[in-house]
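Entry:
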Amino acid sequence: MLKKILLATDGSETSMRAAKNAVSIGNKAGATVTAVYVVDVHRLAQLPGYAAMPGIKDNLVELMFKEGSEALEEIEDMARDAGVAYERVVAEGDPGEELLKLCRDPGFDLIVLGTIGKSGLKRFLLGSVAEKVVRHSHVPVLVVPAKDEQE
């Protein structure tokens, strides 16, 4: 029986598809959905001039937090409309690591996250965050694919 679902979002179309699945499962199971947005500060450090321009750094981090808040609000609306209990978390760091830390909470029964949409040979790859979570999670993981081109 599911009581608590961890939903990872990055605000993308694929993560919103994952959110719809998580909310639907939460509705049917009577589970709480905890949506998580991780501000990937490690990716920012790879930008040229990032460390040399503190004003840009602060603006980018602020924009990422704003994007996360907007994505979480959209999911909150979705959960409220479905009558699903909802919690939200904004974390900072490496997305895969932060999700794994959060899922160590003994209350989580399922992790739901989206994969990246790719074509050809890359289509079979999950994406680094999804792959890391699938490989290291101690709870079941539902990976929702990107929208199929035929949909």
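Residues 117-125 have pLDDT under 50 and may be disordered.
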